């Protein structure tokens, strides 16, 4: 069988998959080189080192995240958009734990590509919240509430932080329903 051609894109794709398997924090050049059946030094033709690889994986993960969240809310509003956004967020976090961890990796601010994924995720959050008729600064507060609630639950679930003998799906839906109630009644808070 022919060995897969090594390109920067192939390295980033394989690294993202490997991060999902072993954890982003355990991603090494040695593990990636082993996946391609080459020596570590062969990778330096395509990347500058581990930090460069991690940043590229983070940028890829942020773009994938933004694409998935944007597709989830497209054509939906209010509760339907919130459910779609939240369920997609949770599925990405628990189904792709390495990529999820990568979305929190600090990326350099050089160039527009570095912040495009983050900016698009925030744009999708604001688009979702338009259905709740929030103006500034309430919209910013609501985006922060939304992201921190979904992140907290998803992160705890992905790392085995919930141990009670109760359905996570029921708890998840209650959390999302509570977000909907809060967003609907924001002006009364």
TrEMBL record:
* Keywords, sorted A to Z: DNA-binding, Transcription, Transcription regulation
Q: Which positions fall inside the HTH tetR-type domain?
A: 5-65
| Keyword DNA-binding set for record | yes
Pfam families according to UniProt: TetR_C_33, TetR_N
Read off the InterPro entries from this record. Homeodomain-like_sf (IPR009057), HTH_TetR (IPR001647), MT1864/Rv1816-like_C (IPR025996), Tet_transcr_reg_TetR-rel_C_sf (IPR036271)
Q: Which residues bind DNA?
A: 28-47
Under the GO molecular function aspect, what terms does this record hold? Answer: DNA binding
Keyword Transcription regulation in the entry? The reply is: yes
Q: What is this protein called?
A: Transcriptional regulator, TetR family
Query: Which source organism?
Result: Saccharopolyspora shandongensis
Q: What is the lineage of its organism?
A: Bacteria, Bacillati, Actinomycetota, Actinomycetes, Pseudonocardiales
């Amino acid at each position: 069988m022919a060995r897969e051609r090594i390109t920067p894109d192939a390295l980033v794709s394989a690294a993202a998959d490997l991060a999902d398997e072993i954890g982003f924090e355990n991603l090494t050049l040695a593990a990636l080189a082993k996946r391609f059946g080459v020596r570590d030094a062969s990778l330096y033709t395509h990347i500058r080192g581990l930090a460069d690889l991690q940043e590229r994986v983070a940028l890829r993960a942020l773009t994938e995240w933004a694409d998935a969240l944007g597709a989830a809310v497209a054509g939906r509003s209010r509760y339907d958009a919130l459910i779609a956004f939240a369920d997609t967020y949770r599925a990405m976090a628990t189904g792709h734990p390495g990529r999820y961890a990568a979305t929190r990796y600090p990326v350099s601010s050089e160039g527009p590509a570095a912040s495009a994924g983050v900016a698009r995720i925030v744009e999708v959050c604001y688009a979702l919240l338009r259905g709740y008729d929030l103006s500034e600064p309430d919209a910013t507060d609501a985006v922060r509430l939304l992201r921190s609630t979904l992140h907290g639950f998803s992160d705890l679930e992905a790392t085995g932080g919930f141990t009670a003998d109760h359905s996570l799906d029921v708890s998840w839906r209650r959390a999302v329903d509570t977000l909907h109630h809060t967003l609907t009644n924001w002006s009364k808070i």
